[in-house]
Amino acid sequence: MRRNQSLLGLLGLVFLLFAVIAGAFTGGRTMIDVVYIAANGVVGVFCLIAYLSAGLEQVRNVVSERSTRYGANVIVGSLAFLGVLIVLNYLGARHSKRFDLTEQKVYSLSDQSINVVKNLENELKMLAFVEGGINPELRDLLGNYARYSSKVSYELIDPDKQPELAEKYQIRTYNTVRVEYGNESTLVTQPNEENLTNAIIKVTRKTRKVVCVIEGHGEPDLDDLQSPKGLASFRSALTNENYEVKKVLLASEPKVADDCSVVVVAGPQRPFLEHEIQAIESYLDRGGRLLALIPPRTGAEFAPLLAKWGIKLGNDVVVDQVVRLFQGPALGLTPLANTYGIHEITRDFKQRTIFPMTRSVKADAAGKSGLTVVELVKTSPSSWGETDLDGVFQRGEAALDGNADLKGPVPVAAAVDANLKQMGREQEGSTRIVVFGSIEFASNRELDGTFYNRDLLLNAVGWLVGESDLVSIRPRGIRASRIQFTPEQSLMTFYLTVLLIPQLILIAGIAVWWRRE
After folding, report:
1. Gap between the Cα atoms of 73 and 403, Å rounded
2. Which pLDDT score is estimated for 20?
3. Which of 101, 245, 316, 490 is spaced 20 to 30 Å from 496 by Cα?
4. Model confidence over 172-200: pLDDT tens digits?
5. How far apart are CA 12 and CA 419, in angstroms?
């Protein structure tokens, strides 16, 4: 009888404790909160009343008693566990196999690296000059490349034992890799996967594609590495993939140069002149490639041009809910996206991207022959395209208007592949266009951040210039992971980790104690 009284008392305290915790953290904002708090409170009070009606003597017994009857069982169990570990360690040593459990798969070759070596036409050789001729980590990395292509070979060389070879190839430091392909070669002094893959791209490309970035309209600076909103990381990413990046002052040019493999419009803050728009239109009419990043409240002069190619720029800004634990949902202008259209740019793309300060970009090719338009990226269902721009930017207010606003999921990027002949043009060939509704999507902060903006942006460039093996997920570094929750996921995580699991553990512990008593 006494044991039952003690059980009721302890359970009552547990239920009341978690009712108080839930009330303090949630404030009873949702019906789930109210039900959980009320249920725990009622059960807790009932248990304590039942316990107190029989007296408080059992509580003193619970506090003072200690049991050591199961000490031997603990020792035997520990020894058995140790024995299992020894056996597993022995089997692991005899049958070695590696598993890459990192989120970014940093110990496996990326899709891009695999594509690059699988598409080799000739033999590729990598000579690694390492101290003592031994570097297991580098050997494993080079071996990964050779595993995916029989045309890849590698060798680890001790420069102290072969100084003439080191001198011939101008090796100045340990851990330098010489990458050779035909008559082309380059040195990699920091041989990680990203640098090695970029070196392979460099020596295997017969020509360098030219990326022409138009300036003169208040665009973010391509050389600005200090500002989070600069585009130096974009330029560096292009250079690493062997593109030549040129700044173009189109206002002083009669037309877009023929050597431009792709033209980039990167967040203009002032309008383009009429003859600049005509120059871009003429460039597209003769089979050009355009990458346009046009944020809200800018680039109105591009709307008619892009409409001819099946893309509609929204006169809005995308608003999405962000979730802060214990604070509930709040409005934000940095929507996340992990919903992608079926397209070569986004093939097998499942990673999250972020689009700060973006407008909607919709496909609108109805009745236009020769156009294939795909909406590449969409934000979450909780987002919408807010058309009251003054309310957002001047008063900091936003509310979904079912009649005027664009309900989510909202498309924020689109790609066009146009067959010029089918469009009635005299010229053969095709025109390709990719439009993003944000320039901050390509900023230093986002390209160097946690999300996969860099891969998506470079995939778009690779598709525009026709280099399909560069359309993939690139090598990743070791970095901290970040999880973004929907309101439902946040609520579920809170209840599981803060309330339900700890509460069940306490109840189970009390039950075990009660049975042993």
Report:
1. 70
2. 82
3. 101
4. 999 999 999 999 999 999 999 989 999 99
5. 73
Class for the domain spanning 111-203: alpha beta
Q: Identify the band that residue 78 occupies on the pLDDT scale cut at 50, 70 and 90.
A: low
417 in Cβ contact with 384 (< 8 Å): no
CATH topology of domain 207-470: Rossmann fold (3.40.50)
List, as one string, the DSSP characters of 202-214: HHH-SS--EEEEE
Report whether 292 contacts 309 (CB < 8 A).
Answer: no
pLDDT at residue 189 in the model: 93
Relative to beta strand 406-407, strand 384-386 is: antiparallel
Question: What does pLDDT average to over the chain?
Answer: 86
Q: Is 451 exposed, middle or buried (0-12, 13-18, 19+ CB in 10 A)?
A: buried
Tokens of 331: 């409005």
Answer for the pair 26, 491: CB distance below 8 angstroms, yes or no: no
Does the pLDDT at position 255 exceed 90?
A: yes
Residue 320 gets which letter from DSSP? Answer: E
Q: What is the mean pLDDT of residues 145-168?
A: 95
Instruction: Please say whether the beta carbons of 470 and 208 come within 8 A.
Output: no
| Cα 267 from Cα 356, distance rounded (Å) | 13
Domain boundaries of the chain, sorted by first residue: 2-65+492-516, 111-203, 207-470
pLDDT above 50: residue 62: no
Judging by beta carbons within 10 Å of its beta carbon (0-12, 13-18, 19+), is residue 223 exposed, middle or buried?
exposed
207-470 and 111-203 share a CATH fold: no
Tokens 């089979």 map to which residue?
287
- Between residues 327 and 382, the one the model is more confident about: 382
Q: Residue 186: which of 208, 166, 169 has the closest Cα? A: 169
Residue 248 main-chain phi, psi, to 5 deg:
-125, 125
- Are the beta carbons of 296 and 317 closer than 8 angstroms? yes
CB 253 within 8 A of CB 275: no
pLDDT digits 0-9 by tens, 94-148: 555 556 655 556 668 988 899 999 999 999 999 999 999 999 999 999 999 999 9
- Contact between 262 and 290 under an 8 Å Cβ cutoff? The reply is yes
